[in-house]
Amino acid sequence: MSTGTLKFSLENISQDIVKGNRRSLARALSIVEDGGPDAVWLVRKLFPYAGRAHLIGITGSPGVGKSTLVDALISEIRADGLKVAVLAIDPSSPFTGGAILGDRIRMQGHTLDKNVFIRSMANRGHAGGTALATYDAARMLEAAGYDVIIIETVGVGQSELAIAQTADTTVLVLMPGSGDDIQAIKSGIMEIGDIFVVNKGDLPGANKTASEILASLELNPKGAEWKPTVHVTNAEVNEGVNLVWKSISAHKACLESSGQLKERRKHKLQSELSELVADIARNNLKNSLAHSPQVQQLLNRLLDREIDPHSAAECVVEDIYSEKRK
Amino acid sequence: MSTGTLKFSLENISQDIVKGNRRSLARALSIVEDGGPDAVWLVRKLFPYAGRAHLIGITGSPGVGKSTLVDALISEIRADGLKVAVLAIDPSSPFTGGAILGDRIRMQGHTLDKNVFIRSMANRGHAGGTALATYDAARMLEAAGYDVIIIETVGVGQSELAIAQTADTTVLVLMPGSGDDIQAIKSGIMEIGDIFVVNKGDLPGANKTASEILASLELNPKGAEWKPTVHVTNAEVNEGVNLVWKSISAHKACLESSGQLKERRKHKLQSELSELVADIARNNLKNSLAHSPQVQQLLNRLLDREIDPHSAAECVVEDIYSEKRK
Question: 20 to 30 Å CA-CA from B170: which of A55, A168, A184, B295?
Fold first, then answer.
């Protein structure tokens, strides 16, 4: 893959990204999304530029109005003179890897603004992989000089949370009377939210939902530095969104002054490292599955129930080590 | 952990499970949920009993009425004289690992029936881990003689789909006018659905939603053996649920007669094996992170941006190999 010519063009891409070239940035994001040696090359090159932007994760169930809220937030962020990028992560199939067109054509109000960059990303084969691609995509955007990066995911499942946790500040969006969401929040999702937004505040029950969240927060206090905030918004008509943005900025200031930002980022790098190592192991196995007669034989023994999956996995790990030893 | 006494009591648990003791089964499911050497021991012991039951995955966004549908399906399955177990996987926090009480207290109509077993399971730290625990939990239920195992997950995200794919037959539940879900389905989730159910069929637009799904199915034909079916139900009043159960049974018959069942199960064992190997790698790293000064040093270099995450991961993999070689 990485011939001299390709390296040369990757070199060009990385140089152009730092100069703020949007086309090169788009190209780099595609490369990072696909993964592989070119993606690794770009990350190696641009990693020194990362760590400057404020990463904001925004998540919530389908239909609560996340995209509308993000759209309104972009206006607030731009009013502060900051450059902003949005990564919308799609809950697409592990098979097609296709992205939802709907997300791409939303947020059209900002398409002419050169300081706004919006991009959809498809899910990789597994949740960990998508989080890894998200980390790397954010690095490309940081190298391109974006001050704020919004990572928008759909849903409150495990994988969406893993992705939301790549952020410095996590915003959970709900709508009035979303009983199942409140259940999920009570059961623990709450712990990852720094800021809670009850959107569609014109619907009945908005204040009740906000009170329920506040009550849950008081039952599960999160630490002294930051007390999570709860906002009622109607993003459609831009109501309350400025307060959400103020709260996001206050959270960042709090992370910085308390030293928590460094702690959080260390923790994230640690998770990323362990996910990357697991990924290398998974890929090594994919190669073994295709090429190693030993692994094929194990698979057949598994099907015949002569061996159980855990013992088979241990055999494979042994195999990989002994192959490496040769 | 595995002292003689503990082994003895695990031995008892495994024997009692096969005899159909519900308390031992519940205990085994907790052990499997927690993971670790005791879980592996039980799976080794009971793996030969697995592979007999029909595994049905049921998934859909919050609020579409999955639990009500499952409740109604249980009645249909029991009417056919089959023993049925339900595993409800909760979208709980990676931090608390707590399960949602709501799911546990649902489906109360069947609590007195000795041939129905209902159990909530919390998500493990990562999506792959939850799928692994689901495989093992299903094995315990198969050893206990359940003919049908329903795996219910909340959401249409990556992790929920990974869990749904542990099943032989996957049922996707929607409700009328769930635009975002249809989007997701169009983008590829469709491929994993064998049967589609538009629940809450009394709401306006139910037939329109069913038609949209049918139209998408015709655009993406799935192979000759099985043509996915689309049903409109109102599970609350038990409308249309018998047809869903008939379709699930027909799908099973089709998998068996076409030889696809064996293919699917081989594919699942292959995924499980690669996830288990990745898991071993991840755990090895967790130990290294705590104990290895080399890994701690790498982490500090990462924080100072002297090294990028991909290069760091390669160093760690090399470290693990060379440690093993000693």
Answer: A184
